[in-house]
Write a structure and sequence with these properties.
The protein is α/β, with parallel strands linked by helices and 183 residues long. Helices cover 48% and strands 15% of the residues.
Length: 183
Amino acid sequence: MKLHPTIYVNGYGATHDANDGNYGRYIGELMRLLRLNDFGKGMTVYLCGGHANRTDLTEARCMLNVIQHSGLPVAADFVLVEESTTSRDNLLNVCQRAGRVPLTVFCEYTRAPAISVIAKQYFPEVQMAPVAFDHRSLAIGQQLRQRYLNNVLDVAALYSPTLDALRTILRERHVAKCHAQER
């Protein structure tokens, strides 16, 4: 797969273990694609995600740690986008930094339909690179919830201020629950 020079990598929580199998598969696939594209030479990779499930480590920093821990050679420039915890806000932050450029989106595959719709609001050309890597997201119940509830709400929130406010409340509640469990 030939990647666009600007790459968005969606965060997926901040693991406590740099050897985490899920993150290893996720970041491993990113690294594989970069190697196939001249080791990412001339590419800017935006690692996105804030303090979603941990107060001491952002999703973006966690991904960079896993990349550095892998020891794999890569020539891409990595930029951390740590200000937000939603895909929509992360995409907006990347657009503000990179401009309206063609974008490759790297994400967990059940999130790809919604992220694709959202990304097309900010970028003229969007190439999706979804990855099936998390055994929890492969469960049929989780897939149905993601596809028919979360994705629909994320996309509908683009067009409805009321649904956007609901989406924000639900995300803040989820982040608060994760932070409380961390203590």
